[in-house]
Amino acid sequence: MARAGLGHEHKPVGSFLFAGPTGVGKTEVTVQLAKALGIELLRFDMSEYMERHTVSRLIGAPPGYVGFDQGGLLTDAVIKHPHAVLLLDEIEKAHPDVFNLLLQVMDNGTLDR
């Protein structure tokens, strides 16, 4: 439907969440998906984002803070490779604010800072 022009142009074509126990192949599925599609695989170790203040490393500083004009690691990577497979490894270890952020991105396809 998306390729036929019937999808919503401002929303992602697809958002997928692979969940399951260790060793079932979630990471391998993302690697193979990126290869099959011929696009970049963007991998982030989410265990590095356990504290609330580390969320700004992903998306950049909020308005009014030093560095607001600079992007974060995630935002810069997605701007550089807008059509990519995004692997958020060890997501269960991330701060709850990261989950709220991802919910917004997966639903709307955009990030409001």
From TrEMBL:
InterPro entries: ATPase_AAA_core, ClpA/B, ClpA/B_CS2, ClpA_ClpB, P-loop_NTPase. The keyword Cytoplasm does not apply. It comes from the Bacteria. It holds the Pfam family AAA_2. One of its GO terms (molecular function) is ATP hydrolysis activity. One of its GO terms (cellular component) is cytoplasm. GO terms for biological process: cellular response to heat; proteolysis. Keywords: ATP-binding, Chaperone, Hydrolase, Nucleotide-binding, Protease. Residues 11-112 form the ATPase AAA-type core domain. This is ATP-dependent Clp protease ATP-binding subunit. It comes from Klebsiella pneumoniae.
